[in-house]
Amino acid sequence: MPDILNIPEQEDELYEHHAFRVVKGQQPLRIDKYLMNFIENATRNKIQAAAKDGSIFVNDVPVKSNYKVKPNDYITVKFEHPPHENLLVAEDIPVDVVYEDDDLLVVNKPAGMVVHPGHGNYSGTLINALIFHFENLPNNSSDRPGLVHRIDKDTSGLLVVAKTEHAMAHLSNQFAKKTSEREYVALVWGNMKEDEGTIEGHIGRHPKNRLQNTVYEGDDIDKGKPAVTHYKVIERLGYVTLVSCKLETGRTHQIRVHMKHIGHTLFNDARYGGERILKGTTFTKYKQFVDNCFKILPRQALHARTLGFEHPTTGEFLKFESEIPEDISECIEKWRHYAKHQDS
User: Fold this and answer.
1) Out of 152, 154, 269, 327, which one is annotated catalytic?
2) DSSP state, residue 19
């Protein structure tokens, strides 16, 4: 993991900037491949284009994409991106609407769709789709139309979207006061000891990897914000466990960080190390089996299954459930078959 260095505020807002110090043990590796591991949503084509434009520097000298990084190299990258006023563009992208009335709608977000535009994602987001299909959505405190809460790009599942200022305030208040209900289904590495439990750990930005969050304890506890996750085992499948997680708080990557913290990283969660075989045997056949599971489910095994909240106008408590998507279901079924074969 490189040292991620802070970049001072740039006067030119048409660029996003990154800086890295390569660690001592780094083996020689093409810089385009290296940067793909540490810059969120950066494709190899985008990195190669930046190198071609002379926007990737090693020790203050521009390099080509085939440059091989060495220990202690100081890398800086400058990606061009559109001006902020052009970020919110309405796009005719299908939206899976589970429920809609005059105040709100509930959508089922597919895996792979980013919720709102940001560095590296200026189109194809849920917000781009929403502003095409729905007019005059109210802005939240971050000027994001309709958005009450969010889920990660590669997490699938339910989100509530506000259609009026009143609904935005009412729903946001419920999430802040923890009266909404959110339940996720996750497939995690390892056989969990307890059938159910609660994880409490302050979550904050990882000190060395800005793409990760981590749990802070002891004297460092103030570096994070309080986070509480309640979990319950649904099914034990040998070297992995299917669990239900209910959020009491809504920190970024909360379930992913908390599960890693207790030694049960989400299956195929590349950001947190779950794309490696963390439990199991050394047999080649087992490795092939896990690789096949990764191909079926090329993302972290996390789905926002249940969403409940009080309707901002009627006061009725509404509850919605989304079926576990096919990629996760198929992966679970493979593990179920494997576990049964191991027991027989």
Assistant:
1) 152
2) E
Three-state DSSP state, 23? coil
Question: What are the tens digits of pLDDT across the range 98-133?
Answer: 999 999 999 999 999 999 887 667 788 999 999 999
First to last CA, the chain: 42
Residue at 67: amino acid letter: Y
Query: Which residue's entry shows tokens 């191991």?
Result: 342
Cα separation, 35 vs 38, in Å, equals 5
Who contacts 158 (Cβ-Cβ below 8 Å, separation ≥6)?
A: 98, 106, 107, 108, 109, 304, 305, 306, 307, 320, 322
Alpha helices in the chain (DSSP H): 31-36, 44-52, 126-133, 165-176, 254-261, 284-296, 326-343
> How many other β-carbons are positioned within 10 Å of the β-carbon of residue 81?
15
b/e for 306-319, b at 16 or more Cβ within 10 A? bbbbbebeeeeebe
Please provide residue 64's backbone torsions phi and psi, each rounded to the nearest 5 degrees.
-90, 170
Single pTM value for the model: 0.76
Note if 327 is an active site residue: no
